[in-house]
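User: Hi! I'm working on a homework problem where we have to compare a predicted structure to a textbook description. Could you give me the structure for the chain below?
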Amino acid sequence: MRCIINRRAQFSASHRYWLPELSQAENIQAFGRCTQSPGHGHNYVLFVSLAGDLDEYGMVQNLSEVKRVIKQEVTSQLDFCYLNDVWSEFQQTLPTTENIARTIWQRLAPHLPLVNIQLFEHPELWADYQGNGMEAYLTIGTHFSAAHRLAHPNLSYEENCEIYGKCARPNGHGHNYHLEVTVQGEIDPRTGMIVDLGALNKVVEDYVLEPFDHTFLNKDIAYFAQVVPTAENIAIHIRNLLQEPIRELGAKLYKVKLVESPNNSCEVYCSETAQNLAGIQQSDRSLTPVST
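Assistant: Happy to help. Predicted structure tokens:
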């Protein structure tokens, strides 16, 4: 039986974004405060995912051996180090989150049956790498607060209560929504980035956070005048809002995840990639908003 197992590790390290061929002004324009000398640090959290068939002892890999390999090849070399200097790969390509994940894959791949490297720079920024050349995934997390009411405009109050329960009450209710936006792209061989992180954050701010935060979605967002603002429909609308602006940044929107509460979340993918997502088959029907 084939399984995927995950091993967590961590290391603390510093880095700086600076290209010597650029002027100070050009570096600051490209990398902002990350250019400051002598650099800045993070508590990195690493998840190493391995795949394989179970052996006679019920294991994909002996986790003690996995732990040893990760420590030997990665964490013992990076922990409490200045990343720009510690590995030669980071002198050619800057140690961004996505490039660190790619380089860790390269270091571990000869020893372990990898399927994914996930590296958290902090809880609201992480990268995934799956061994596909320079292709990687970068995720940013953020939040907004909004109210909504789940009620189909063509149904009676009683009918809506039958479908949506307490969520159909006429004055609505609110959530602190947590939003994750994942983009896909090629790592630049010099900057180490698949997208300008500042520009990506601004797109999410301008197209989602500013218009959605502290609103009553049914009344303040025109789209939801005729579309029931379920978590699924909100995520689909956010996906549709972000696809083109992110494409203009040179990346591709891969996934939007919306966490409505600790018990309720949903994920929607861009149509061109939805059919190939970790065995999840999305149909056109599943990506259609609930409307009138």
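For your comparison, note the following. The mean pLDDT is 93. The CA atoms of residues 5 and 33 lie 37 Å apart. Good luck with the assignment!
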